[in-house]
Predict the structure.
Amino acid sequence: MKKKVLAVLLSAAMVLSLAACGNGGQESSTPSSSTPSSATPSTESSAPQESTQPSEEVPSEPVTIRYGTHWINELDPNHTDDVTGEYTMSEENRQAALAALAAVKETYNVDIEFLQYPNDVSTDLMTSVLAGDPICDLALLWGGVEPTILSQNVLQDLTPYKSLFEDEESSWLLRDSLFGGYYLLNNEIPLVTYFPLVVNLTMLEEIPGLKDDSGKTIYPMDLFLNGEWTWSKFKEYLQTVQAYYANVAAPDGGKYEFVQAYETDHRYAALAAVHANGGAIYDGAITADSEEAIEGVQFVKELMDAELLTDCGLYDDGFTPEWTTGGGDFGLGCTVFTDCPNWLIGWESSQRSDAGQSIGIVPWPRPDDMAADDPSYMQSNNGGGSSVAILKGVSPEKTELALKSYILYWQTYYYTLGGVSTIEEYRQASAQKTLQDYGVDIFNETYGDSLVECFSYILGHMSTNYAGLLNLWEHGDWTWSELVGKSYYGVDGCPSYDVAIKQHLTDLSNITENIAAILKTDEIHDNQAPNVTTEDAVLTVGTDAASVDWTQYFTAEDSVDGAIAITADNLNVSEELDLATAGAYDKAVTVKVSDTSGNEKEASIKVIVYNPDNTEAPAVEAAETLPTVALNTETSGIDWTTFLASATDADGLDVKSSVTADLSTLDTTTPGSYDVTLTVTDYAGNTAQITVKVEVVSE
C-alpha cells in the first residue's frame, strides 16, 4: 500500500473540517425569473472600461466593505442566536472566519461588515442599484438566482480586475466568463461532483471475468490510473458485469427484477460524457451542438441500446426521470454502477457497509481518442452553490479593495480551516475527508490509495455545468435534459440528438441571448413582478354579486412603482361561483396586475358562502393520533388545528381554522397529560366543544 500518499493527506486532514460558510449547498425553492419585459432608467456602471492595474496603496483610514447575504447565520462569525445567545457558526468555521477578518484588517485596513438582505435578494439588489445606493459591496447570490440577477444588469463586469485572480491561490475564486464578461465569483471550493460515478467494489470482486492472471480483481481505479479508462474499456467492463449479473435476482425493494450493470438517470450520464469529452452545453456560448457534445450524448445512447445502461426513468407526466432511483437501487445492492446524487452517497454507502460491501467513486471515462493527460478531459460539476458579485454603483477604488479583501478573506479562511498553506493542499486533504464522510474505505490495503488518487483527480478536474446555472437544463419542452431524453426515446417525434439539437438550438440560445442583449445595454431592468396579497371573502347565502366590492380583498405593491391600484378591470369572477348556494369556491375571483415595466402577477381568492340562518352546531372530530407538546412551549405557538381530524358546519364547510383552546388546565412547564377543551365556531356563530388529551413531554 502506498503509505506515503495517505500519510501526507492525513497530516493535513487531521485539522480539516469540510463545513463551509455560505448556503451549505442548500438550494432555495424561490423560482428564478427569465427575461424581463422592459427596462427602467439606466444606472451607470462604476467599473472602469479598460484594464486596471491593481493598486498597492492601503487606505490610511479604516474602510468598511459590506458583504450581503440572504442567511447571515452561516456567514457572520459574530452572529448569535436571538434565543440561545450562542454563535450560529460552528466553532471550526468561526475561528477560520475570524482569522480571515483579522488578515483583511491587518493587510488592507478593511472591516468586513456582514448584512442580511431585508426582503429578497432579487428585489433588494435591483432597487438599491436603481436608487443609486447599492445595499452592499459584495453580494452573495443563492444558487439558482443568477439568471434573474444577470437579467437585471445590476452587476459589474469584473474583467478590468481579472489580473487580481491570475495566481493559482486566487484563480478558483473567479468564475468563468459569461456573456463576454466576468460577473460571478466563487466562495466555496468544490469538493464533489454533483452526480459522481460510483461503483460497488465488492460486487466486482464476485466476477471471474474481471480478474487478472493472478486472480486479482481489476478495478476501475486500476484502469484509470493506468490510463486505460476509456469509453470502449468502460463498455467492455459493463459487458462483463452484465453477463455475470444478468440472471442474479435483485434484492427486495429495487426497481428491477435482476441486478443491473449500470442503472442511472440518462441525463447525468450524458452530461458526464459530454464534459469528459471536453464539451459543454454552455461554455461562454451555447455549445450543445458541438462535436464533443454530440459524441458524448451518442455514447450514452450506445450504452442504452446495448442494454448496458438501464435508465431508471418513468415518463408518465410528460418526460421526467426518477432522478434519484439509481442511487436508491445502488444502496440496496441492485446495481453495480450508478451516477449517484452527491447528497445520497453517504446513506447509500452505509447501507452497503451494513451488508459487508464497499463502494468507490471513480472518474467518468474519457473517449478513446483522447490522451489520459489531455486538459480537456473533465468531470462535470453542476454549478450549484452560491455565487458572489459586485454591484453597479460601487466605485472603482472600492471595487478593487473589495476584491482584494475578498480574495484574502477566503484564502485565509481555507488555510486556517484546513491547517494548510495552499489551496491545493486543502483540496487534497478534502479528497480524503470527503471520502471518509461518504463511508468509502480509503484504508483498504488493496485499493484505498487508488480511491484517494482517483477522487483527488476528480476534484482537480471539474468543469462547471453552466446550463444548470443559466436555466438551460430543464423545466421546458426543449431545454437540454428534456431534449436529450426525447431524442433517446423518440418522444414528441424527436429525432436523434445530433439532428434534434440543431433543430432546437434556438430554444437554448434564446434564453442566453435575452440575457446577453440586456448586458450590452447601460439600463437596469426591473424583472420583479408586483407582490399581491389576498384575503378570502366570506359572504352569506343570497348576497347580490353586484353589491360585492371584490377589490377590497386584494392589495398590490411593486418594489419600484409602489402601490398598484386594484380596479374591476383587473378582476375576473369565475362562472362557478354561486352566491345562492352554500359552499367553498376556490379561485373564485382572480386578479392580474402589471407594473410599469410590464411584469405581471396573478392571484386568486377563495369565496366562502355560508347560511346565516343555520343553528346546528358544527361536527368536530379529534385527530386519531394527537401531537405532543414540548416542555416549556409557548402556548400561543401551539397549532390547535393539528389536534382535529375535521370540523365542518351543517353545509359541510370546513371550519377547523376557527378553533380556540381553554388553556386554564394546561401547564407546559411540567411534563404530564392534560385535558384541554377545544371550541370550534362556524360562520353562523354556532359552537361545538371537544376535549383532547395534551401530552407535554421533555425533549
Summary: The chain has 18 helices and 24 strands. Residues 531-610 form a domain with the Immunoglobulin-like fold (CATH 2.60.40.10). The chain has a mean pLDDT of 90.
